[in-house]
TrEMBL record:
Keywords, ordered alphabetically: Kelch repeat, Membrane, Repeat, Transmembrane, Transmembrane helix
InterPro entries: Kelch-typ_b-propeller, Rab9_kelch_effector
Residues spanning the membrane: 456-480
Lineage: Archaea, Methanobacteriati, Thermoplasmatota, Thermoplasmata, Thermoplasmatales
PANTHER family xrefs: RAB9 EFFECTOR PROTEIN WITH KELCH MOTIFS (PTHR46647:SF1)
Coiled coil start-end: none
Protein name: Cell surface protein containing PKD repeats
Top-level lineage group: Archaea
Amino acid sequence: MNSSGKSNGIMKFVVIAISLLTVMVFAFTFSGTPSISNGKAITVTPSVVQNSTVFKYQWMNDTSSIAPQPVSNSTMACFTPNSEVVMFGGMTMVNETIVNGKSTSYMLVKKTVNTTWIYNSKQWTKLTTSSSIPGLEGSTMNFYPRGDDIVLFGGENITSGGKMVLTSQTWIFTGFAWTPLKGLVVAPSARAFASSAYSSSISSIVLFGGNTSSGLSNSTWTFKDNSWKRVTTTGQIPAMEGAAMESLPNGNILLYGGFNGTYSDSTWLLNVTTMHWKNLNLNNNPGKLAFSNLKYFSFNNFLLLYGGVNSKGVATNSSWMFSPVSMSWKNMNINSPSPAYGQSMSVLEANDTIVLYGGLSTNNNEYINYTYQFQNNTYNWVEFQESGLPGNSTWGITLNSKTVKTTSNEVEFLLMAGTYGYTTIAPSGYTGQSGNITMYASFITQSISFSKIPSFFYYTYGLIAGIVIVILAYIGSMVYRKILK
């Protein structure tokens, strides 16, 4: 290759290099670089509120893949040895074939079921047993620590002919099967929709009221060491069915509401030492209710009353707490499951939660199969701090299906522990990063850096300038070649 060819090659390389460099210089010079001249990249000192942990009482919907059939008036108890909730029976609707001459049609009929379900780790498991326990609704069921088993009493069964039959049978659940308790000399008469709770101070299950073949009852019974005893009580407590009952931490028994032709809003206290029923006459109360549920939430030392049907025959979904310290009711005013009554509810001691299942809606008489957990959830703040934007720019964050926009330096979210994905909302002409953030048990911050997007106009301007340089370089190379000649 002669010297002229080498010179031409060098010139071409120089021209290309200068062109590319020119495009880059012009584009980035005119488009600008990320700016923090407005002092936006600052560290925000969290407020006292943000630094504090927030506790929220919540009903959390459990969308497990397997669930029992829709039922109402089933019964539920925590089987402590296995840290699980046991649910039995209930009323449901089934298709029944009706033969009329040559035609066959179907209709919905009520049926009591005898299935047993186990709930643990947010999963339902159907227990397969060879037990002869019949389908029942309106039974009572309690864990009995002295025997490490569950005691079920009473209820009513719908026979194949559609007849309602009350039972006085006592059943024992040991974790695997139901066994009838035989040889009882004394026992409550056959009844359904009685109320019961375990009292630790007398090591006994206390049973009250219910619907018997001779009408409503106001009798009080105790169950201890596989035997029943009728208790003589004082106090003028009326006969009742569908009242909510639970034990206080001191072992005394609280009973609320119920139905005896009218709906009750009375709060009764049974002193298990003197066996005296006392009407507490509390004016601020959940209202006239029956077939609601009452359970002790030990994590925060109160009793939770949920649901029921009111004096208008309408199901409710209010949540009330009863303090065993102040002996008073308080409306919790929290989001709750859809209104229903006849749900079953139990404490799940291992998780400090209360489990709620099923029920009947009065809106369309629909049997329900949802599962909820009542929890005291812990929340902490995460604060997103931005940099790179001019003052008063509108930006935002989308996290956990919620979008928050602002013109300030920070955006805050209140989150439970876990890992969350977030996306940024940038103003026109800027871009910001998205990603994941992991919450633990304390306040955290996350920096968000915005960058200015280079304008297409300035890219074009730089390209034109580069082309001009190429043309000038080409002209220069032609002149140079003529000089060499």
